[in-house]
Specification:
The chain is an alpha+beta fold. It has 13 helices and 17 strands.
Length: about 500
C-alpha cells in the first residue's frame, strides 16, 4: 500500500465523515451478500489512497468493518445451512467471505506498519491507542481465513501462517500481545493477539479435514469457548503436543521430536486443562443439557453437537490419534458408488455389479493400508462427496466390492482433491430386518447392510438408513434358513443418510 505522509486533505469520498455515515447507512440491509461486496469494494478503493492520516484511515476501516459484521454472519449461515445451493452459488459465498477477511487483515496491518514508519506524525500519535485493536482484528481475520479454507478442505499456505506468526511477534515485541480489547461491539468478552494465535494453532490441531462444514463451525466455536484452557509457551512441557516457529511462519508440527535449539519464535502447544473441561461438557450434553453460556452461534440439537465433542475429545488428548496401519504407495483405479441406497442394492447379491453405471465414479488410488486407502478425486467426484458419506468401492480387476466411508478430504489446487477412505467391511451383505413387537415380527422390513468381517463374536454391526436404529427395539432377520434375533446395544456412528448400530445376537425363540 502506498501512503502520502503530507498534510494534504484526502479527496477520497470516505474522508468525509458525513459521506461515510451515509454509505454505511445505505448498505443493502436485506441483501447481506451485496452489502459484503459493497464494503469489499470500498476496501479495494482504500488500497492506494493518498493524503489520509493513519488515525483517520483506521477509523474509516474500523467503521466499515463493524458495519459488515452482521452481513458476514448471514453469508456464513447461508453457506453452511441454506438448502439446495448450486455449486456456483456456494463458490460465490465462499469467495466473498474468504476475500473479505484477507482484505481487512491486510488493511489493519498496513495501519500498524504506516504508524511504525512515521512514529512522530500527528496521525501516528493519535492512532497509538488503537494499535492493539488493529492487531487483534488483523489476527482474528486471518483465523477466519483458516476456517473458511477448512470449509473447502483446503490447506493454509505459508503466507497465511507467516502473517499469523509475524502479527503475534510484532504484538509481543510492542507489549501488546496480551492486551485485551473488545473485538467487535456486538461480541461479548475481550480478546488478545496471543489468544487469536493460540486459537489458530488449536484449530489446526483439531483435524478439521474429517468434519463436515457445519461441524467445523461448531468445533471453531468450541475452541473459542475452551481457549483459556489451552497453553502456548516458549518452553516444552511433558504434555506439549505441537510446536510452531512464529518467526519462520510455518504451520504447527507434531512434537514427534524436539525441534532443536531454542529460538525467539519457538512456541510449544499443549491442550492444558481443555480435555477435562471438554469431558465435563460432553457428559452434560449426553444427559441432554446444553449450558446457557455456550455460544454456538445458534441453536443446535444434541444429535448435532455430540459427534463434534467426541471428535475434539480424540484430538485434544495428550496422545492424539496416530496412523495405526502402514501405508503402501500404489497406482490403481477404483470403481465407486455413492450412498446407502446404491450400496444396499449392490450388496443384495442380485447382481455382480450395479446396472446404473451413470451413478458410478472412477478414482485413482494413491496408497493403501490395512484400514483403508487414499485416492485422487476429480472435480466432478469431489462435488458429490461429504465427510461421512457411505461408499461402495471395487479395485480395478477385482470381483469383490467393499463398503467404506469418506473420512478425510483435502482440496488440491491443480488436480481436484484427495480423499481418505476407511474400509468398514470387505464382506458386506444386504439384509432385511423386521422389528419384533409383542411376540411377532412386524411386516414392514428395514433395509440393512451387515458388516460381516468386523466385530466380536456374537456382536453384529449393521448399517441402517437414517433413524433406523432404536435402542428400545429388537430386530430380527433370516440368513441361510436361520432366524437371527438382535438386541440393540449402541449407535456406533451416524452419517447424513445412514446409521451404524451394534447388536448382540441372542438365540431366536
Amino acid at each position: 500500500m502506498m501512503f502520502n505522509f503530507f498534510a494534504k486533505r484526502s479527496d477520497h469520498p470516505l474522508a468525509d465523515s458525513k459521506e461515510l455515515k451515509r454509505i454505511i447507512a445505505e448498505l443493502h440491509v436485506d441483501k447481506p451478500a451485496k452489502a459484503v461486496d459493497e464494503v469489499s469494494g470500498w476496501f479495494d478503493s482504500l488500497q492506494h489512497v493518498e493524503n489520509f492520516r493513519v488515525d483517520q484511515f483506521f477509523d474509516v476501516l474500523r467503521q466499515l468493518d463493524e458495519a459488515a459484521q452482521r452481513h458476514l454472519l448471514r453469508v456464513a449461515r447461508d453457506y453452511l445451512l441454506a438448502a439446495r445451493l448450486t455449486k456456483l452459488e456456494e463458490e460465490r459465498l465462499w469467495t466473498r467471505s474468504y476475500r473479505y477477511w484477507g482484505q481487512v487483515a491486510t488493511l489493519y496491518r498496513d495501519c500498524v506498519e504506516r504508524a511504525r514508519l512515521a512514529p512522530k506524525s500527528k496521525g501516528s500519535d493519535a492512532f497509538k491507542a488503537s494499535v492493539p485493536l488493529a492487531l487483534v482484528r488483523s489476527q482474528a481475520a486471518r483465523c477466519n481465513q483458516l476456517k473458511w479454507l477448512a470449509f473447502r478442505y483446503g490447506s493454509a499456505d505459508e503466507d497465511l501462517w507467516r502473517s499469523l506468526g509475524e502479527t503475534y511477534l510484532l504484538a509481543e515485541g510492542a507489549g501488546n500481545a496480551q492486551k485485551a480489547v473488545p473485538l467487535y461491539p456486538a461480541r461479548k468478552g475481550l480478546c488478545t493477539v496471543a489468544q487469536q494465535y493460540l486459537h489458530a494453532i488449536a484449530f489446526f490441531a483439531s483435524s478439521m479435514d474429517s468434519l463436515m462444514p457445519v461441524q467445523i463451525e461448531l468445533a471453531d466455536r468450541l475452541i473459542a469457548h475452551f481457549l483459556p484452557h489451552f497453553v502456548l509457551l516458549p518452553d516444552c512441557r511433558p504434555d506439549s503436543v505441537y510446536w510452531v516457529d512464529a518467526a519462520a511462519g510455518t504451520a504447527p508440527l507434531r512434537l514427534a521430536r524436539h525441534p532443536g535449539v531454542g529460538r525467539p519464535g519457538l512456541r510449544f502447544f499443549s491442550p492444558g486443562t481443555a480435555l477435562p473441561a471438554l469431558e465435563e461438557l460432553l457428559h452434560r450434553v449426553e444427559r441432554g443439557e446444553i449450558p446457557s453460556d455456550l455460544n454456538l452461534g445458534g441453536e443446535y440439537a444434541q444429535r448435532a453437537l455430540l459427534p463434534v465433542l467426541r471428535h475434539l475429545h480424540l484430538y485434544w488428548a495428550k496422545c492424539p490419534p496416530q496412523r495405526r496401519h502402514t501405508r503402501h504407495a500404489v497406482k490403481t483405479r477404483m470403481l465407486v458408488l455413492f450412498g446407502f441406497d446404491d450400496s444396499y442394492s449392490l450388496f443384495s447379491g442380485a447382481a455382480s455389479r450395479p446396472g446404473n453405471d451413470a451413478g458410478m465414479d472412477d478414482w485413482v488410488v494413491e496408497n493403501v493400508s490395512l484400514g483403508g486407502f487414499r485416492a485422487q478425486v476429480g472435480e466432478v467426484g469431489s462435488g458429490r462427496i461429504n465427510i461421512g458419506a457411505l461408499l461402495a468401492v471395487q479395485p480395478e480387476g477385482g470381483d469383490n466390492w467393499m463398503l467404506g466411508v469418506a473420512r478425510r478430504f483435502t482440496r488440491r489446487d491443480t488436480d481436484g482433491a484427495s480423499l481418505g477412505v476407511q474400509v468398514l467391511s470387505r464382506q458386506a451383505l444386504s439384509i432385511e430386518l423386521r422389528p419384533r413387537r409383542r411376540g411377532f415380527s412386524a411386516a414392514v422390513a428395514i433395509p440393512g447392510i451387515w458388516l460381516q468381517d468386523r466385530g466380536e463374536a456374537g456382536i453384529l454391526r449393521i448399517v441402517l438408513p437414517l433413524a433406523g436404529f432404536n435402542v428400545r427395539e429388537t430386530l430380527e432377520f433370516s440368513h441361510q434358513g436361520k432366524r437371527r434375533e438382535l438386541i440393540p446395544m449402541e449407535l456406533e456412528e451416524a452419517g447424513a443418510e445412514y446409521e451404524i448400530g451394534c447388536f448382540r445376537e441372542q438365540a431366536a425363540t
